[in-house]
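Changelog-adjacent note: as of this version, every example in the card shows the full chain rather than a window. The one below runs 211 residues end to end.
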Amino acid sequence: MLDKKPIICLDPGHPSEVGRGTKGRRITEIEAAWKVAIRAKKRLEDAGVEVVLTKSRPGELVRNRSRAEIANKSKADLMIRLHCDSQGGSGFAVYAPNKPGRNAGTRGPAPNVITASVSAAKIFHKRYAEGLVGLLADRGLKPDTETAVGAQQGALTGSIFSKVPVLLIEMGVLTNPKDDKILASDRGQAQVAEAVADAALAVINASKRPL
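Full-length structure tokens:
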């Protein structure tokens, strides 16, 4: 076990100021993100990691700025935002801020946070993809600017207000019947949660500073 516990902030997406997220025929984005977060939390805690959640129950409304501020206050080594997509196609994607954006008069994230986020996301994406081979397709590692909100603001709101390394996972496309079925299943949730935890541990282990 590590001498000093690293801290991971898990952010189960929605509900927020932008709504309740997407849904499939079997499961909603809120449910999928929460169930994966709870499983990943246990896996990480068993590995000696301190885990901070951005909400205390599935339906709790927390604004995206507040979610980032929770991660900042905890001085998390990494904030992982869990979401599901509703666009065409199938599979997961990992996003990280590649430049500052602006929201409510605030410009961010800072250059050092962008650099750390991109570095962490590369490590995370590689390990996460390895954990999901044969389950969900890999749609790649992408910048925030390839999301609808990121394209408008320059970065996602959760990235703009973050002072710690941050990434977002679209765990699957819930409007795709295959992805919906996987994320609604106990086996699918368990495998995705294990991939989240293992990828977070890979980021921690790659860090040069003692955690």
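Structural remarks: Residues 27 and 184 are 5 Å apart (CA to CA).
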